[in-house]
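User: Second chain of the day. Same drill as before.
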Amino acid sequence: MLAVGVTEKDMAKDENSKFQNSILKKLDSQHGGQLFEVSKEEDFTGKAGQSAVLRLSGVAPKRVSLFGLGKCTSGSSTSAFRNLGESVASAAKAYQANNAAITLASFEGLTSESKLMAGSAIATGILLGTYEDNRYKSESKKPTLKSVEFLGFGVGPELEKKLKYTEDVCTGVILAKELVNSPANVLTPGVLAQEAEKIASTYKDVFTAKILDTEQCKELKMGSYLGVAAASANPPKFIHLCYKPPSGSVKKKLALVGKGLTFDSGGYNIKTGPGCSIELMKFDMGGSAAVLGAAKALGQIKPLGVEVHFIVAACENMISGTGMRPGDIVTASNGKTIEVNNTDAEGRLTLADALVYACNQGVDKIVDLATLTGACVVALGSSIAGVFTPSDELAKEVLAASEAAGEKLWRMPMEESYWEMMKSGVADMVNTGGRQGGSILAALFLKQFVDEKVQWLHIDMAGPVWNDKKKTATGFAISTLVEWVVSNTSS
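Assistant: Same format as last time:
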């Protein structure tokens, strides 16, 4: 299959009402004007999501397919090129194509750097679009696509290096998808810890792993985290992976902290009623999946000049006689006390101790990721994550990384006056302050556990962690995290 990315501008007609674009004109003449006829019949105008296919007999290619890129210009849209890659992957599945070549109808206005970006985004779409998680199905079809050739996106080592980087990131995304897709009866806190240890042993030249059990967490006075874990038959596991570069000195120390609730029943404030999504609460460890996916990718990329700590306080939020009750007071490892007025606001309780632990590693910057609040989904919908931080500098870094990765983040306010709603009569704070501004209140809560000297940013990814239409995990945030870590390197 030959796949051609076509913008609306590329579909301009000449004086004979035929293709004006030189590549489309050449392809059309090679195939006796059939390509133009097919595009006309199928009303193909280059709009995003459109496609037109010319089936050929005899010599390769068996098909010439046009895919719409919309108004995308000068390589400005990573997501448009990623969507092109996904469209090619699904077309290859449908036609059972073994080999594909990809080009654009026009490379006009694309610098050599933006050509590499476009090629990388297309490759991401193809790799992730070809992948299917069939581990829990009795029967499954294997993808047929074996090779993809990139025409016009650059040559030699530069393109190869960019595509290798893309492949490394995609292996991290696929790991994260598999972790989130795994049901809670398979992926327990212990199994999540084993996955972290597997990353450390695979890339032992750059990684070390430390897994803390209940007793060790008690010694560190992690009362907030252990309070959430207390009701489960599956013991909690506190995961700490540390990446150190293979050579050279460390200029920056970073931490990635992920919420790791392998299942969230809500506790005694049990999730009930339509829309509570209790059956999907296996995805409440999406933040930890992003952190471990990024770790796997970085283990292959091996950036220099940066040390990275990957931290997850993994546990389940269940119900039993030993469980935390509404109204209980727990004490976090920094000595702050929390009145638990809602056991279903548990993720922040686990993150509290994880953030204190991260600060104690002597890091300069922390990014935490969590499927934290339904309020953020109400505010931003299902495809945009909320960003909360007191640091303009860190916000700029992470938002630039997300743009390069083609993932959608939106900075939200840290409205300090709202903290009044989080005051307790009997403890330092409550763990939730009601429905209004819920995602802001959650971020203000987390801030209480971060050292003022450390730059910190919180990503609420409750919306984009899961694709409702495809009923599968998205692997959200890994690309952004890897871009951010790499942007902090000295290499």
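The chain has 14 helices and 18 strands.

User: Great, on to the next one.
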